[in-house]
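Morning - uridine-diphosphate-N-acetylglucosamine inputs below, output right after.
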Amino acid sequence: MDKIVIEGGMPLKGSVRISGSKNAALPIITACLLTGGWHKLSNIPRLKDIETVKSIMSKMGVHFREEAGYLEVNSDNLRDFEAPYDLVKTMRASILLLGPILARYGKARISLPGGCAIGARPVNLHLKALTEMGAVIELDHGYINAYAGKLRGCEIFFDIPTVTGTENLLMAAVTARGKTVLRNAAKEPEVKDLASMLRAMGADIEGDGTDTIVINGVDNLRPAEYSVMPDRIEAGTFMIAGVITRGEIEIHNCCSEHLGALIEKLESAGAFMRLTSDGFLVKGPDVIESVDIRTMPFPGFPTDLQAQFMALMSVASGWSMIRESVFENRFIHVSELRRLGAEIDINGNQALIKGKESLFSAPVMATDLRASASLILAGLVAEGGRTEVHRIYHLDRGYEALEKKFASLGASIWREKV
Ligand code: UD1
């Protein structure tokens, strides 16, 4: 198992290129199950979660080849419809296999993802919506068994705007009989990116990026060539890194419309931000001001940047309040930030942070993907020696070569085998 070692105190300087989005790439890869032929995908990040979805799909008979920066995917010979527990348990997003497999083959057996470190995270809304489209779904010893003839279009209202739920239903609906309307749909850019991929495959979709998506089922799809959007969470992590280290970095290959809520908050914290042709220039202030945030579905402040923003507020000049309103129990990074000297009180879904002049180095343990990034950000400014971040496999699920990118910006950071 690896750990990341950081000697804090260096302001980051230079430029960094953001990788393709994990959360867009995952449904785009599973969308390739909807029709045969070779799909050609680019800007796919090199991440553990991508390897996991490829392993599950390979086991099912899907072929992958990598050539000249493209990931090519072919599902002509799918022979197995099961996503087994031992793989699904490492990646909740495996549920994204359900919609496309059911739509194309009329049956699927996917292990229930179960709970995870950030709360219960059920998939009841996915299952309810698929049932409304005519699927028969049984839960059997921890597995979802789903059957359908031809799915039929209908009106679906999501009680909560669920990102992967909206994506699953988009994929299920593109070849369904008739029209499907998804109401209270997720508006996240990754949903829009999936819809663009599906349109490139011949789907008829309108309204993605709003809370009402209309899909007219088509008889045939075709293989597509598609480039995945940049990872807005990785970009946001680097923006916060520039500010927390009082550095100055240029962030390339990212999109300002995806990061409006974070930009607003970083400017309120005193950061200087300038748009460039393909991203931003970010400069940290001498004094970081405290600001409050509340996580919300897009275009609100992303829950996937909450932990990183908390690291920033730990070294701000006063008190700040962070409210987590997307997930329950998403403050597990707090106890580890406290080990680095952060002063944080938790009350339910609210965290009250008293900014400190400095943090100090300590060994800490990553508890989930975004928590790992927050500990590394804190480690970049921790004083008095080495911060070691253990259980770094969480980080490798969702950040491509994060420590190498930070090192290229002048940070003293490296990976060690334990
Ligand atoms: C996706 C992202 C994740 C991000 C999250 C919120 C991927 C692979 N993951 O996760 O990084 O943190 O969106 O932006 O894209 N809910 C239910 N029932 C359901 C589905 C969801 O109650 O059937 C609840 C969840 O518990 C949560 C809320 O809805 O409280 C939103 O979750 P959701 O948008 O579904 O998150 P994911 O799609 O799992």
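Note: Residues 2-19+230-417 form a domain with the UDP-n-acetylglucosamine1-carboxyvinyl-transferase; Chain fold (CATH 3.65.10.10).

O.
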